[in-house]
Fold this sequence. Notes:
heterodimer, A: mainly alpha, B: alpha/beta, 20 helices
Amino acid sequence: MASSYPPPLEGSAEVKEGFLCPLCLKDLQSFYQLQDHYEEEHSGEERHVRGQIKSLVQKAKKAKDKLLKRDGEERNETSYESFYCGGVDPYMWEPQELGATKSHLDLFKKHRAERIDHYVIEVNKRLIRLEKLTSFDRTNMDAGKIRAMEKSVVAWVNDSDVPFCPDCGGKFNIRNRRHHCRLCGSIMCRKCMEYVPLPLAYKLTSGNRDGLSAPAGSPGQKESSGGSLVPSLPRRGSISSLSSVSSVLEERDDDRIRCCHHCMDTLLKRQEKLEEKDHVPDIVKLYEKLRLCMDKVNEKAPEYIRMAESLNAGETTYNLDTAGGLRMEVQKYYELIDALSKRILTLGLKEEPSPRPKTLQLQKMVRYSATLFVQEKLLGLMSLPTKDKYEELKEQRKEELERRLQQERQAQKRRSEVERSRPTPNTNGEVPTAARAPCMTKAGGWLPSSDTLHTRQLDDPLLQQIDNIQSFLRQARAAGRMDEATVLEENLRQLQDEYDLQQTSRAIELSKRQAEEESLQQEQLAHLELKERERGEWQEKEREGWEWREKEQGGGGGGEEEEQAAVEEEEDKTYTLARLSTSPPRAASIKSFPPLGESPPTASDQALSLNPFDDEDSTPVEEDASNPFAEDIQKEQRAAVANGRKEYNPFEEEEEEEEDGVETKKKTPVSGNPFEDDEDDGARHLFREAKASTPPEAAKNPFDEDEDDASAACEIIEEELLRQQIDNIRAYIFDAKQNGRADEVELLSENLRELQHTLQEQKRKAT
Amino acid sequence: MNVTLAVKQYVSKMIESSGPGMKVLLMDKETTSIVSVVYTQSEILQKEVYLFERIDSPNRDSMKHLKAICYLRPTKENVEHLIQELRRPKYSVYFIYFSNVISKSEVKALAEADEQEVVAEMQEFYGDFIAVNPHVFSLNLSGVARGRSWEPSMLGRTTQGLTSVLLALKKCPMIRYQLSSDMAKRLAESVKQIITKEYELFDFRKTEVPPLLLILDRNDDAITPLLNQWTYQAMVHELLGLNNNRIDLSRVPGISKDLREVVLSAENDEFYANNLYLNFGEIGTNIRNLMEDFQKKKPKDQQKLESISDMKAFVENYPQFKKMSGHVSKHVTVVGELSRLVSERCLMEVSEVEQELACQNDHSNAQQMVRRLLQHPRVCDLDAARLVMLYALRYEKHSNNILSSLMDDLQRKGVSERNRKMIQSVVEYGGKRVRGSDLITPTDAVAITKQFFKGLKGVENVYTQHQPLLHDTLDQLIKGRLKDSQFPYLGPSSLRDRPQDIIVFIIGGATYEEALAVYNLNRTMPGVRIVLGGTTIHNTTSFLEEVRSASSGGQSEHPQGMGRNPTRR
Lengths: 767, 569
């Protein structure tokens, strides 16, 4: 899908995201690189920066509009004729709806209904006659009497009307005598005649006469005769015809009823239907079980994979034991599938009339598809980290977090310096926003209506925020996301309250601010010069840091004369930053941060990193204006996470990440505090302690407690790994056997043996 | 506008609506090809379809625990088979789908046969064509012409196929056709008639710019199917024969048993999908990379998996490795065979002359080159004959035509009478007299200057300088410059805007070179989607069969399907 997007930015074939240089759109792997790149390549271009940025903003906007339009269309599922721009590989043509169809079922049913009525009557007529024919005791009756009885059931066709057998066309004469069908009264020759054996007759009519006891045979007998009915019929006919050559007239129909083959056909069909009704073949039963297992696997496997991924990343969202249990469960289902399909494969092989080739083929195919299923799913089942590996992973992750924290702090420090220098106002603050606009849109979140950023009719950030939220709200409503809309509505209300409050305090502070401004400007100028000199030295830089840097550069270029508006604009800048960290689609840019799992902390970092900036602000006016704003940011952010989550569900990896985000959010006291008070090491220690203390508790493993006995624990883990490997290798042996690659089987089983050997040795050592 | 997807969606819809349980797919000969081109067996197995049966195969076992999905063309024979089937049902439930329009009387006949009430569904799903690529379809019909007009039965089938494409893509198009071809006109009228008759079916949501159906005749460009090809798909078809995306490799010397017949499907073979339209040289490089990649992954034969981490790595790579090994051996075999044939038949030299003949206008040079190659001992009869054919088509009216002496050369070379006769037939089929467009010598100023510039710039690759006529035709069509006098609209209305959705159909068969041209147009033209179709997809051999059957006035019937290259050893 991604590549079917139209190129939004001058021929760059795809929507780029990550650390793009805003000027040359070069993709740089990290913000450090980006910063270096920027300083090297574009430091001389500062004078043109503004113009370029303007065009970039416009381009981004255009792209955004296009993407938005597309999103809307996707939601309405009108992708078929959707908008189109630029040639595309036919393989990438967007999905289309099902082609035209036309149903004939109604017409078919109408015709069938007409016919069926007729057919059912015919069948029922025959059954009723059959019932009558079998209702008397044949064996003890005189042949003539039987004949009379039979004649009374149905009117026999006149002999003289039928000179030839209607089925074979043979002429009737003294040797080729006429025979009457007892069920419909028609005439045929001996050869074309068939017999209904009494057991069959009883069986067929048993539905019609529940009360009567079956005189001829017990139910068991019926079954057996019914089963062998078809093959035995002709034989019986031939024997009787041999014997009847001598005495045609003496022939007695003790245990059978003569009929034509049309009637016989109908009766046989009827019998088949009766049999099918309550007979479920073994293969069906087994197959149903097999499918049940497959459904279970389809249900559980993704859950397990999610867990395993999270655990392998060293996260603490899931418990290692639960994951292990789930793994066992899934594996059991695989074994069950394997066993069931094997049974299906060998079904009926040992029975006497060996199954027909097609039945065998069916069984083979079922087995094959089960094997494919197992192969595809089982082999995708990643293994869990062992206990100590897990600990290691967790440690790694913690270090990673630590490192990030460090970076944050440095960035903050730097930022506060920058803050003091107070760069001049500019539209440059928008640069990052503009450059990232496409990827934001790609994430599919709501966007503020596009003109708010650029035109700036509202000079109060809160008013803008309100405006933004209103536009989010509109979009959410348009998309029918009522849940999000309510969240947004609430936000809006809070914001409006805040705004009212602020307005009053503002009026009071306005005079104070005027006086302060003068001195502030002096300070800024001094700092600017200082910064220019220091520029080369900043090596480790945060994203925010870079953004600030950006602004500063812009400010250095043409900011001086705009200083008058500094304070006023400062608010806007704050706002821009806030938007960066708060706007829901942000998560898309989070994606580009190297360690995936860590994005949620980043989100909070950013919000928090704003706080110091606010705190350090020397002007009370500013403090007053921005503090409530910071609150607002956090609120927004929470909403953002919530929004983002809904948005992301389709993308699985992100779901993972989002869920994590929620997790972290729940633990706000834990994750929030250490970041906020960066001087307070105690809090962080607490955090670390908490982390360190959880695993033993959670694991509840007796071995883990005596941690000083490291070697023992190590071996145990080794053992687990071995077991897993053995499992895996078994799966491959099975697979290899399936495909008849003997050499591989050998190799594998040798490995298996070795492994088992090692395992046993280890066990011995352990005990 | 994706034909492969259209058929796939039809099939999966059929299977889905039959619910859970074991299923059998009951098809006829043609629907078997239709389904097998878009679905692999393992794909369809996952949808619980375990058996595939032909409706016309006798003595099918009764298996009452299976559900039957019938996908059939609504032919008389199929309906008759189905009636018999319903009288004595072998499966528990029947879901019946016809690939085209079925008459009410036949529905009635079927309904009356269904005494056991086993039919649960009866629908028309219009997948009555072979979806070769997402933008290419074929009807697998050969010998459609009898002289200069339709073989009667073929017109009906072609109309059915073409209308089913329109229905599957939900397009109710305006129709343009090639004026110089009577067959194109007949087909256009026939399609229009169906659209009028089944107006309810064709009642789709109107689009801003109506789609366009352009019907062409092969005889307008007889040169393209005579050229040797150098892109992967086209080359495989030219040299090995690609039938429903399958290649028969049984004649390749020393072929292993499981590679006798291989499937080349872009749907589930990544290497093929990526290299479909690349030329032979690029494929060579890519296949070497593939091999190297594979070598890296392949565990050494007796490599001991010493440590646990070794083992783990092996186990983790195993499935990938297995899948890869299938593709690797397949493509290595195919490419190996191609390169063997190329060197054996001196195809590089031959192709260079072919391209020279098709694209340049230098008679004396051309005649020398043809002469020289006819003397070459390793140039096979077919290649020799087709060089002369190309010469004959190209310099048909040239004042210093040396065709007769070339014919003598052919005879001396020992080319069979049959092949020599073909030269005359080809000229009759696609010579100047029958052509409606300026295939060879451009007449208008724009085209002349274009050719002039081309000459100035020089040629990038001598083996692929030829652009099929179709490319120019479509280019003009997209730019709104295609002349109404040559390609009139059927009916009074005409398109005012530039067309966006275009379906091109070539009577007498398309080629993979044209498929590539359409693919490139799709990729480069903004807002345009083109689907190419043909009565079949030709290589030289099958094209010559087509010409032969057309010129013999339909006296000799040729079986359907692709011809095999007779000269391959």
